Amino acid sequence: MTETMISPTSVDDVSAGLREAGYLAGESTALVSFLATKLDKPVLVEGPAGVGKTELAKALARYLDRRLVRLQCYEGLDEAKAMYEWNYRKQLLRIQAESSDAGWSDVQEDIFGEEFLLPRPLMTAIASELPVVLLIDEIDKTDQEFEAMLLELLSEFQISIPELGRIDARTQPVVILTSNNTRELTEALKRRCLYLWLDYPELEHELEIVRLHSPGLQESVARKLVEIVGQIRELDLKKPPSIAESIDWARALLLLGANEIDAEMFRQTMSVIVKHRTDLDTVAARIGVKLEAAADARPAA
Amino acid sequence: MPAPPPDDRRVTPPGARLYAQIPDRIPGGFDGQLISFAEELRSEHVAIGTSELLDAFSALTHISWTSQPDFKEALAATLAKSPEDRRVFELVFERFFFRAAEAEAARQQIKEGPATSHAAQGDLDLEELRRQIAAALSDGDEATLRDLARLAIAAFGRGEGSGVLGVDVQRIRRALGLRTEPQPALPDDDPRRDGVPREQLRRFEQHLRRELERDMIERTQSLPPKRALSELDRSLPSGPIQDLAAVHRVVAQLKRRLATQGTELRGRKRHAHVDVRRTMRASLQSGGVPIELKYRPQRPRRPEIFVLCDVSTSVTSASTFFLSVLHALHDSFRKLRSFVFIERISEVTDVFERERDFKAASEAVSRDAGVADISGYTDYGRVWTEFLSTIEDELHPRATVIVLGDARTNGRPPRDDVFAQITARAGRTFWLNPEPRLYWNYGDSVIAAYAEHCQAFECWRTDQLEDFVKALAQPIVAR
Prior knowledge:
The complex is a heterodimer of chains A (301) and B (479).
Chain A: H1 11-20, H2 27-39, E1 43-46, H3 53-64, E2 67-72, H4 79-82, E3 84-86, H5 88-97, H6 104-111, E4 117-119, H7 121-127, E5 132-137, H8 144-156, E6 158-161, E7 165-168, E8 174-179, H9 187-191, E9 194-197, H10 203-213, H11 219-234, H12 243-256, H13 263-269, H14 277-300
Parallel strand pairs in A: 1-8, 1-9, 2-5, 5-8
Antiparallel strand pairs in A: 3-4, 6-7
Helix pairs in contact in A: 1-2, 1-3, 10-11, 10-12, 13-14
Chain B: H1 8-11, E1 20-21, H2 29-43, H3 50-60, H4 68-79, H5 83-107, H6 126-139, H7 142-156, H8 165-175, H9 198-220, E2 222-223, H10 244-268, E3 273-274, H11 276-283, E4 295-296, E5 304-310, H12 316-328, E6 335-341, E7 345-347, H13 349-354, H14 358-368, H15 380-391, E8 399-404, H16 416-425, E9 428-433, H17 447-451, E10 455-458, H18 462-473
Parallel strand pairs in B: 5-6, 5-8, 8-9, 9-10
Antiparallel strand pairs in B: 1-2, 3-4, 6-7
Helix pairs in contact in B: 2-5, 3-4, 6-7, 7-9, 8-9, 10-12, 10-18, 12-14, 15-16
């Protein structure tokens, strides 16, 4: 290995490194990331949609200068798609190409070799020469059987293939599992992980994030934007705006050259942050009116 | 209301004999402390395995112990693995380390000096103190708040301590004139004029409580007995004080969990029939060899549900809450009809289909249902008769009837014979009682008479409700 691996020595290191990678980590986020690199334990990140769970894994990969291997989970995901698969077609071809005098045992040994194995994300991650960051996204979408299958990988970093034996990790990956908490994960899985709960950030923290991603936006506009987003999250919506949507909105405002968020501007750009028909009505009724009232009050004052 | 069953905690008069002596130091130094911390978490139903404890120890070797947030986060990341556990963790962490530090201070005879003696009342400008505290609340850090809490105790808590912390805290808060509602009588520049935000007030009260407790420990040289976290921390919304947003979160959570649960069940039972068409198609990939079998999904039969909820004052919020949960989940049921009752019954299915909002729904129910006749007291006998005549034709062995109520008849005949008729016709009958099991069959509660004919559940915490709804949403296996 020629390049030196980045290995953080303190929580502040991680915090600064993530910031450089374009991710402003909260206190606990930085700490848990630091522990993950030190203890070689997977991290289970839970929280509402759009608070930067997936982004954390990406930023960690950038900061640690490692490749990101991503496994997107969905219902019905099985080991053939997550770990490895035998390349049937190639095996068939191999058997057909075999001359008839070759013995059965030769062929059998032959077609279950690594040559006929198609590695899927989990296998790729642990077989990689250089250490990687493995992101197992939305683990709560899979069924419990799949979770059970992950246990061996998460605690021992190895995969057992019946025909081939055990494959051990060559390098230790940093593993991030994310979950939207739509279903209770099993105790066994949780026990093997460090736990991190990500929530919508505090006002100041989100302001910083927005400013990092759209530095051109005026300070006052950015602050107002974050305040409005905070108010919208208080409402009972089908889908509250996420951090990513705050950033999108900031960029939209920047493009439009907005100097202020008034009722008119809000109405025009609202669809960037609110994405349901019924939600749009609610937000227009609650927040839009408030902005108008504020605009009316100002000339009078 | 009947006399509540005796509660040891409440009847014991406050006084020195309540206080245990300072306990001996836990053996094993810091490791011992951490293990007993884990023990305390376990006693609050946070499941902590030995492997997690080992993780906690190894995590602590990598961070600096002098920073309290880091120390706490490292422990939380390894020990508390769900948002609920995390909340319990915060409370226990606070309690455990406060007590550990105080016990150690007492053992080593370190004192801060009693807060109640060193400032005579005349020395302090009370009005100025009031203003300072209110100002510090909005922008002060923890240390300032703590100092001000000590000052406040010195100024207002002198001598007349009642011995009950909660009472003292509220008395001092009132003396300081801190209120959440606006006080227009105050001058313009006073920060209290627009009312103090609830969150800040709660923080200050916490400081007050802690300082009072510290004071008490120093005076009596003993630690108060450790109290289990109140079950109420996890209880269902029982009144308007409860945070509506919290209710919404619970409902949203339940909804998502249940929405995924059905498919999960389907997944487990999918080994039913081979879907020949899809298998053939998949076999094309491998040259006609059916390597991969495709199965036909099995669709579970969804239950039909009749809900009957008591909305008399004692249980009204629990009922409305339960109904809005069920209606939020109406896709999981084949049919859902809901009724509310006090003296008579009234159907409210429409209200809940129309209103997504918990608050609006509960207002609509109390306004339109018209279920209270004269007295406003529940009349179960009449309710059963009316209910039976309304839906008699629709009840069949696959129907589920759920009753939510406290089974308090106010002395009227329970008519459990009519109730028995209902349960005989329906397939399953559940009774949800929003009172803790401890209070069942005290006074005019006749739950035992009804429980003979149905399954009765205690249901006054969100997790109990969640368990019940889960069981309910499970498809009925054809009998």
